[in-house]
Amino acid sequence: MPDLLIDTDTGSDDAVALLLAALDPSVRISAVTTVAGNVPLPLATRNALISLERADAGAVPVHEGCGRPILRPLHTGQEVHGEDGMGDIGLPDPAAAPSGQHAVDAILDLARRRPGELTLVALGPLTNIAAALLRDRSLLTRFRHVVCMIGAPDMVGNISATAEFNAWADPEAAQIVAEAATPDRVTWVGWDVSRKDAVITPADQERLRGLGTPVAAFAHEINRKVAEWATTVTGLAGYDLPDPVAMAVALRPELVTDSEEAHVQVSLAPGTRGQTSPDRRGVADAPNLALVRRVDEDGFKALLMDALGRGGRS
Ligand code: BDR
Ligand code: CA
């Protein structure tokens, strides 16, 4: 049974990734940690708690983490995900509260206590993970696997011409993780994969609504603002779901249809901030990451519809 530690800057696609994991009876979520990114930290924590409650996930501890990137000021994605990160649909406050433990301490604790047991799924800027890594350089080896939603390996970006949001938001953190990574242990799922294989078209949205469950309605409503942005600003025929794709890769690695190993460095330079260009020449440094390039679109959507068809709470 996959046992997860999920690090998230919960906005609307993170929320769907949380639902995907929480509604899967074959998955355990040992903890959720939150980080500033899509929204300021208190909202990320609020949204994570709301999502877990909607999935009826039981007592999953939520640990609040870093409120800003390591060196950069916080730049949120509220123009895409809404002021509250969840499409501004007026969600009521969650009943639960975060634990008193800092996310970085929780990550270090869990990884030390349960070596080789947990899969870390990182869905936001890598600030918490990098801060933990600086305190324990062997951190990544303590996980069964690490899957991050990050990067734009073809250099088509969403926050700049060439950079993806999570890499751009805290490039120093991303580079700290990249430097400590090995391709057998750490997988990066770029933004491009969701644009190719996880576009929720109007027909998919219809299917989603037709499921008739409280969680399907919730997933649909919180992503309406993103859908509007994706179609009007980026010209996509629907909206894409980057974090749920990364979650699907963690839960069902067999959905990956194309991947490569490459050496990736994250650019810290002003003009190319957050760029994650793989060096595929094989003549310089050894690969440090496994990069997912494509997933099985039908398999991904079936997993999503299955999970969201399972119910949850309104
Ligand atoms: C990533 O940035 C955020 O907008 C999403 O939640 C996802 O983690 C995509 O670039
Ligand atoms: Ca995210």
From TrEMBL:
GO terms for molecular function: hydrolase activity. Keywords: Glycosidase, Hydrolase. It comes from the Bacteria. Residues 4-301 form the Inosine/uridine-preferring nucleoside hydrolase domain. InterPro entries: I/U_nuclsd_hydro_CS (IPR015910), Inosine/uridine_hydrolase_dom (IPR001910), IUNH (IPR023186), Ribo_hydro-like (IPR036452). Pfam families: IU_nuc_hydro. PANTHER family: INOSINE-URIDINE PREFERRING NUCLEOSIDE HYDROLASE, URIDINE NUCLEOSIDASE. This is Nucleoside hydrolase.
